[in-house]
Write a structure and sequence with these properties.
Layout: E1 5-8, H1 14-33, H2 43-51, E2 55-62, E3 65-73, E4 80-88, H3 97-108, E5 114-120, H4 124-133, E6 137-142, E7 167-173
Parallel strand pairs: 4-5
Antiparallel strand pairs: 1-2, 2-3, 3-4, 5-7, 6-7
């Protein structure tokens, strides 16, 4: 069985990463709700993850092919890291690739004491992935009555306003 590798993204590869991530998130949304003109994951949101302090971005490579990617934010001092983005390339979902990407992340950062990530409430597939496949726990539910303190606007990305503030926050602690 081939091993999945995380390869750092170069400046020249950022646009490919952004397009593939946007396609994956758009497909996930449109599979549930139908076509949407607005991009669910705007370029600016992905760029802000690239620009975050401690940010590291990777393509996931399997059999010399890009199968997905990730952006993580590493806090090497406190060892409390964030998973900003993980995507599996359109056309190869449901084959365990996302789980391989997550395992490669954990292998790359074995000293992490805590991982944190977020996903929208509507995306049951992602919720299942993080909780049942990767071992995260839901620790907070953001909504209109309990807003994410880091959320700047009322609308997140290109999500419709009626569902854009409904997000879960997940954590995964290292088991000693």
């Amino acid at each position: 069985m081939a091993q999945l590798n995380l390869i750092p993204i170069t400046q020249n590869q950022k646009s490919t990463f952004i397009q593939e991530a946007q396609s994956a998130f758009q497909k996930s949304y449109e599979d549930l709700y139908g076509k949407r003109k607005e991009m669910i994951m705007p370029t600016e949101d992905i760029e802000s993850s690239f620009d975050a302090e401690g940010s590291e971005a990777y393509f996931a490579i399997l059999d010399n092919e890009i199968v997905g990617g990730t952006i993580v934010v590493i806090d090497s001092e406190n060892k409390m890291n964030q998973l900003h983005l993980l995507y599996v390339k359109v056309g190869i979902q449901n084959k365990g690739t996302g789980q391989k990407i997550w395992q490669a992340i954990e292998d790359k950062y074995p000293n992490a004491l805590l991982w944190e990530t977020h996903t929208p409430y509507y995306d049951k597939r992602n919720i299942h992935f993080y909780v049942n496949r990767c071992g995260f726990k839901i620790v907070e539910f953001f909504n209109a009555k309990h807003k994410d303190p880091h959320q700047i606007n009322d609308q997140v990305g290109g999500l419709p306003p009626e569902i854009s503030s409904d997000f879960f926050r997940f954590e995964k602690e290292k088991i000693s």
